[in-house]
């Protein structure tokens, strides 16, 4: 493998979302052609308004056309002709869409909040497009059918990295609202503990609020579950438990395919990952310890130091590469990711976690991907663990817990316009 290839891979593939980059490129054209950086704000208010209206119209037209390409892509996939999708030709890494995306409308909504088309010096950005895609997804979900299941990542999505979901967190009333509306909720987190009290420690604000609610019915309260270690440990709400949760044995929720994951393979994969992590930690002189668990192995910093982003990414890519190239890595799904200040390799991934939630609540008829929304912060293609959820559900990519709160408000407004 040439160095050039490695540089391209490292710089581009895992640190960029190809679809977002492509849309950014399309919007850059009207930005360049229509923005008027030389118009003076004070002197020419009217001229600025005309330019902004013109730019807005062109951005909106582009977003409408991209929405059309996505609809066309969905149609070809449904008809078993993925090769005919024009979008796939333009953005080869593009995945599956479970609903249409109402991109023009979503653009107008985000433009009214972020004033994208009024900017003359800063072109439509990655974050602008990420938020437009989220809005378009919410509209697609509520207009095509109903949102029956919302799954949430934990760190950075519900609370700050490494923090806990405490009682004053504004996401709590919103999650209670989802349960009130008879929707199901799953917390699908990488945090992998086999005992319920550990999750209570992290999530007590939410679990106590569900327990204390006098308006939720017992059945609605049972609408919340926690899936830990990506897809390894399931807990259901139980008001008779001190920690509000009880462990659900795997025999009650594993998907058929998961029953083939055997203990020897799991041990072999984790041994291999552990050895790759140790080698990498020694090579980079990381101030880190190695933590081996039942279904995961990770490196974490000792003495409260921070590991640099480059070291974390190098470690993820090194361990992922080592496991991918092994025989066991092709038999067993795994997820290597950068947790912000640690690196973990888990057995399974969030696509399995979300599917298990769909089956658990569906009781014989799993909830469809087009009726499921997964909200998370890690959607880059390597070293990020929410990315795999895209295989099982629609997704929203947020960048902070407060964006999750905004997104749930937006969902409510889309459901009850
Ligand atoms: P998430 O954002 O909710 O998916 O949580 C990810 C974080 O959970 C990681 O960055 C780790 O700090 C922590 N964690 C604790 N135990 C595990 C484990 O077994 N696997 C992966 N991550 C873990
Ligand atoms: Mg996260």
Automatic annotation (TrEMBL):
<dbReference type="GO" id="GO:0071592">
    <property type="term" value="P:nicotinic acid riboside biosynthetic process"/>
</dbReference>
<keyword id="KW-0067">ATP-binding</keyword>
<keyword id="KW-0378">Hydrolase</keyword>
<dbReference type="GO" id="GO:0008253">
    <property type="term" value="F:5'-nucleotidase activity"/>
</dbReference>
<comment type="function">
    <text>IMP-specific 5'-nucleotidase involved in IMP (inositol monophosphate) degradation.</text>
</comment>
<dbReference type="GO" id="GO:0000287">
    <property type="term" value="F:magnesium ion binding"/>
</dbReference>
<dbReference type="GO" id="GO:0005524">
    <property type="term" value="F:ATP binding"/>
</dbReference>
<keyword id="KW-0460">Magnesium</keyword>
<keyword id="KW-0546">Nucleotide metabolism</keyword>
<keyword id="KW-0547">Nucleotide-binding</keyword>
<protein>
    <recommendedName>
        <fullName>IMP-specific 5'-nucleotidase 1</fullName>
        <ecNumber>3.1.3.-</ecNumber>
    </recommendedName>
</protein>
<dbReference type="InterPro" id="IPR036412">
    <property type="entry name" value="HAD-like_sf"/>
</dbReference>
<dbReference type="GO" id="GO:0009117">
    <property type="term" value="P:nucleotide metabolic process"/>
</dbReference>
<dbReference type="GO" id="GO:0006190">
    <property type="term" value="P:inosine salvage"/>
</dbReference>
<keyword id="KW-0479">Metal-binding</keyword>
<dbReference type="GO" id="GO:0071590">
    <property type="term" value="P:nicotinamide riboside biosynthetic process"/>
</dbReference>
<comment type="similarity">
    <text>Belongs to the ISN1 family.</text>
</comment>
<comment type="subunit">
    <text>Homotetramer.</text>
</comment>
<dbReference type="InterPro" id="IPR009453">
    <property type="entry name" value="ISN1"/>
</dbReference>
<dbReference type="Pfam" id="PF06437">
    <property type="entry name" value="ISN1"/>
</dbReference>
């Amino acid at each position: 493998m040439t160095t050039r290839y490695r540089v391209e891979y490292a710089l581009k593939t895992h640190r960029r979302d190809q679809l977002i980059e492509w849309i950014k490129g399309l919007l850059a054209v009207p930005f360049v052609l229509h923005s008027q950086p030389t118009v003076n704000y004070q002197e020419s208010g009217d001229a600025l308004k005309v330019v902004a209206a013109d730019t807005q119209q062109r951005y909106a037209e582009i977003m409408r056309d991209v929405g059309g390409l996505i609809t066309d892509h969905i149609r070809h996939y449904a008809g078993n002709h993925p090769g005919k999708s024009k979008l796939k030709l333009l953005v080869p890494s593009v995945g599956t869409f479970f609903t249409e995306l109402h991109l023009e409308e979503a653009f107008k909504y985000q433009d009214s909040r972020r004033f994208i088309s009024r900017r003359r010096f800063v072109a439509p950005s990655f974050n602008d497009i990420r938020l437009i895609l989220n809005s378009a997804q919410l509209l697609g979900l509520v207009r095509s059918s109903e949102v029956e299941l919302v799954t949430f990542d934990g760190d950075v999505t519900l609370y700050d990295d490494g923090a806990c979901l405490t009682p004053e967190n504004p996401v709590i009333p919103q999650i209670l609202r989802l349960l009130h509306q008879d929707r199901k909720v799953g917390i699908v987190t990488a945090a992998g503990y086999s005992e319920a009290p550990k999750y209570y420690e992290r999530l007590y604000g939410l679990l106590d609020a569900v327990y204390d609610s006098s308006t939720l019915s017992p059945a609605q309260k049972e609408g919340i579950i926690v899936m830990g270690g990506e897809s390894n440990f399931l807990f259901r709400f139980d008001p008779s438990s001190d920690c509000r949760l009880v462990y659900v044995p795997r025999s009650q929720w594993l998907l058929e395919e998961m029953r083939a994951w055997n203990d020897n393979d799991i041990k072999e994969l984790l041994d291999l990952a552990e050895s790759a992590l140790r080698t990498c930690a020694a090579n980079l002189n990381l101030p880190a310890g190695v933590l081996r668990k039942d279904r995961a192995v990770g490196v974490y910093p000792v003495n409260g130091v921070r590991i640099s982003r480059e070291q974390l990414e190098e470690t993820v890519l090194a361990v992922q590469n080592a496991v991918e190239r092994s025989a066991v890595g092709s038999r067993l799904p795994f997820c290597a990711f950068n947790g912000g200040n640690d690196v973990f390799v888990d057995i399974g991934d969030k696509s399995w976690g979300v599917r298990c939630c769909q089956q658990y609540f569906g009781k014989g008829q799993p909830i469809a991907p087009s009726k499921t929304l997964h909200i998370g912060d890690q959607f880059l293609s390597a070293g990020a663990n929410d990315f795999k959820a895209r295989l099982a559900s629609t997704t929203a990519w947020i960048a902070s817990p407060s964006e999750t709160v905004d997104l749930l408000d937006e969902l409510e407004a889309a459901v009850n316009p």
